[in-house]
Amino acid sequence: MLPFFPDVAHAMGSQGGDAGQTFMGLLPLIAMFAIFYFLLIRPQQKRAKDHKAMIESLRRGDEVVTSGGIHGRVTGVTDDIVTLEVAKDIKIRVQKPAVGNVLKRGAE
């Protein structure tokens, strides 16, 4: 057929591809995606869901720690802002997503 290009001639001679070989070639990619999903993506989604539920359940009197490490007691909650009392008569306002952890519920 094409004597100067034996690889091309050989490839042109095989008309049909084997579906099993194609699947076996994709199997490692599918396995890697499954591993990434169960080890990385799924736990991160669960943490985000738990954090959102914790932020939505913030109430006055909760002891919290912000993502910056500031400890305080919640004195007010609005749609986007949480007011924290960090010392006697010292209050700061932080965004809700900045609250990292709730230490105690109803500590008044």
How would you sum up this structure, described in words?
With 108 residues, this protein is an alpha+beta fold. The chain is built from two helices and five strands. It has helices at residues 6-13, 19-56; strands at residues 63-66, 71-77, 81-87, 90-95, 99-104. The protein has a five-stranded antiparallel β-sheet, covered by helices on one side. Strand 1 and strand 2 (71-77) form a beta hairpin. The longest helix is centred in the middle third of the chain and has 38 residues, at 19-56. The relative contact order is 0.12.
Quick synopsis:
43% of the residues lie in helices and 28% in strands.
Give the arrangement of secondary structure elements.
Blueprint: H1 6-13, H2 19-56, E1 63-66, E2 71-77, E3 81-87, E4 90-95, E5 99-104
Antiparallel strand pairs: 1-2, 1-5, 2-3, 3-4
Tags for this entry?
alpha+beta, 2 helices, 108 residues
Strand-and-helix sequence, N→C?
HHEEEEE
Structural class comes to: alpha+beta
Strand content: 25-35%
Q: Could you give the distance between the termini?
A: 90 Å
- For the largest beta sheet, what order do the strands appear in spatially? 4-3-2-1-5
Average pLDDT value?
Answer: 84
Main sheet record? 5 strands, antiparallel
Parts with pLDDT < 50 across at least 5 consecutive residues: none
Helix content: 40-55%
Radius of gyration: 29 Å
Task: Characterize the quaternary organization of these chains.
Answer: single chain
Number of helices: 2
DSSP summary, beta strand count: 5
**What is the overall silhouette?**
rod-shaped
